[in-house]
Fold this protein.
Amino acid sequence: MEIVKNVVCPFCGTLCDDIICKVENNEIVGTINACRIGHSKFVHTEGAMRYKKPMIRKDGEFMEISYDEAIDKAAQILAESKRPLMYGWSCTECEAQAVGMELAEETKAVIDNTASVCHGPSVLALQDVGYPICTFGEVKNRADVVVYWGCNPMHAHPRHLSRHVFARGFFRERGRPDRTLIVVDPRESDTAKLADIHLQLDFDRDYELLDAMRAVLLGHEIHYDEVAGIPKELIYEAVEVLKKAQFGILFFGMGITHSRGKHRNIDIAIMMVEDLNDYGKFTLIPMRGHYNVTGFNQVATWQSGYPFCVDFSLGYPRYNPGETGANDQLQNKEADAMMVIASDPGAHFPQRALETMAEIPVIAIEPHRTPTTEMADLIIPPAIVGMEAEGTAYRMEGVPIRMKKVVDSELLSDREILEKIVERVKEIKASK
Amino acid sequence: MEHIIKNGIVYDPLNKIDGEKKDICIRDGKIVDSVNEADANVIDASGKIVMAGGIDPHTHIAGAKVNVGRMYRPEDSKKDVESRLAGKRSGSGFSVPSTFMTGYRYAQMGYTTAMEAAMPPLLSRHTHEEFIDTPIIDHAAYPLFGNNWFVMEYLKEGDVDSCAAYVSWLLKATKGYTIKIVNPAGTEAWAWGGNVHGIHDPAPYFDITAAEIIKGLAEVNEMLGLPHAIHLHCNDLGHPGNYETTLASFDVPKGIKPNPKTGSRDAVLYATHVQFHSYGGTTWRDFVSEAGSIADYVNKNDHLVIDVGQVTLDETTTMTADGPMEYDLHSINGLKWANCDVELETGSGVVPFLYTPGAPVPSVQWAIGMELFLLINDPGKVCLTTDSPNAGPFTRYPRVISWLMSNQYRSNLIENELHKWAQRKSDIATIEREYSFYEIAQVTRSTPAQVLGLSDTKGHLGVGADADVAVYSFNPETQDPSSDYMALEEAIQNATCVLKDGNIVVKDGVVVNIGIHGRTYWIDTQLEEGIYNEVVTDVEKKFKQYYSVNFQNYPVQEEYLPRSTPVNGVML
């Protein structure tokens, strides 16, 4: 058995890079340090069906074809389409995303990633009011107050708490006892059970609670007995903790980005963090889901100036979320072809978007059988980044780490597939 | 491919050529003595200016905070766009253009080298990824050392040798180029929401002052024989009255002997965007220019070179590793604040800023920058920068050059557009000096090349230099830059012809070819093995406890440097 150390986990935005993989006969058979989700991704315990050959749908049935044929077909679809949509990107590496941006430009496509259905509101908010963040190590070494708002890392980012709350840091030698943990969640989640203060607010009342907390911070009194279902005494107590923090951190998830108010919730959360810097140090970090959702936003930004919802139809990048997002394109029936890569909109998009997907040609660059591949006309399976292919990924707060290749695969990587499609699209366009 | 640039009027200060008619011959990407004229491509430069490719020694073009600047300001991206054309990628952004656009825009102005001035070591892979997508220009990045825990601890113990070993390791691990120091001790204080004031105010816990950090790192710089001097962003940036801190900081490394293993610099200190550090008064009410005091110091001392950080009077995006300063700025102007504190290493901030010409403070800031340029006698001590995009985007360099060459251009601005404070609080209206083309070539070519330690191959047109050449359609024999300043600005904004490594990349102001990828310069030094290994072991131990990434996953792999160009310091 071979042991591979310092492997980076290709699951969530925590991007743990201390995984040890046990390898036998070019297969990962076990892991050390990984959480249960990460472990099952590495060893494929979940009976996932893996595609080994590209497939095309003919008369309703999938037929195996060669990579060359699949790439040619994909290029034909994209080259012939008037308004192609390229969506996904969050489970692949940055070099592939960079080629994807070029492909979008070449085909005058709209390109968007999963942020538009998760932390898109956070992006809109940071464009409104700012983005005061820090890296994980700062939290570990300095934080004496940690807030989780609208997220349940015990389930979604299982090692997040052990790395940032329970871990001992330079100025927090005892780890957990040196920190106050506040959890804001309408549910009695497993994360909330660990909290020193659990603000169990009414569902969809995040904005009101934040507004009340800011008011208290700015020296006002609360004139009601409770706000958002929280007694005012508890709000005073929580605000006092925040004010006294030497180094505070707000982690926030989709419980706040997608409850009523959406990006306005994040606006006011960011402004509260800014206010808190009048007292001590306070920053925030969005709890990003896919391991490289952040990476796509970085790549798209440095190449086009915009993090997601980028429209190349005019030959230069345009950005108008609400018009140029994946769901806007599908629900408004603008997209006439779609390429999905490294994500599963088939499982997550609303009905109206799926109706369009069912009507237009869909190319799926996807290793496994998913609801998206069920709707696809063409499936091109890649090697899985972080296990079978290398490349860069950005941790949720922007730290770039190089994903490792642990075992070999005969399949092409996402990047290689995309490069071939770009090349073929250029040939097709040149021949016209 | 061979080229001959014929009959141009050449300005090449490193070779003491001041406006001579001269042919420049190019073969295999280098300047050579002669080429076979029958085979060579002839570029007619009659009545045109020929200079080496421009060098920007301090700009922010790639990396985490730069990308935050792009990401959180779609309103800026909308102001300028680049369309996809054959062989070229699209892009957007006025104050912070996207990567491809950055390469094109530098090249269009005849600039062929640009240095990213602030790279948080933990995020250095990001900077290099953006470099991969930045075409044409040669580049390097400056890792931040001034608030680094290892540096502060070694220097506190007086262990300069271990500090040198650490610096050597980190330069290699990040593929970085120089020792960048930003608000030493202050950014560490910012991790707790504080700052330091002046060079004798210690960082919390680490109990070390800016003066000690600057001194120690300047010694380390020369021990390692690095090509560039320490690159210092002084404490108290942007505070009225900060010129005293600036002068005190300048004095700290004085007396240390320069020891570059490559190149030929004399300076042991490179002080950056000094415009932001030349303020008198005590508040924004009694704020005045102290550019005169600073210029006087630079005139009397030979151990330093500065760049200006000229305000261009635009709406722009400020970004720096000086975290507390950006928070202060946000408190003043109320515009959106981005921040990123980086564990054990540094911090950073980003805030938009409007340098409105009719507003009092920006007018004086503009005047202070101009005063520095015009009151420092020797252009061998000054580099032209706007600390892009902090005081204005690099695309305004042609305008800054025209201001320097035309008193009339400046006077019109002072009289008609600037707030009266520009005249009342500075001496700018009384200064009539105008730069010559030779002096412009100094502040944009030879001086940066020399102080960066790259003057063997960069910043001049002598035999053996890299064939990076700019040709501008302005005829100094028939046109007077003093009165024809608009034509000059236009000529520099859109160079007639630019060659990079011997390939024509720009013709008539348009990028026609991106040539080969730019070099990434980085520093390779070798210290005595015993101490080096000891330090690396110490670093690895602390990594386990205090970093959030594994030691083995930290160094930037060779894959991130498509054209890796190591520069040697001390090699044992």
Remarks:
- Chain A has a mean pLDDT of 97.
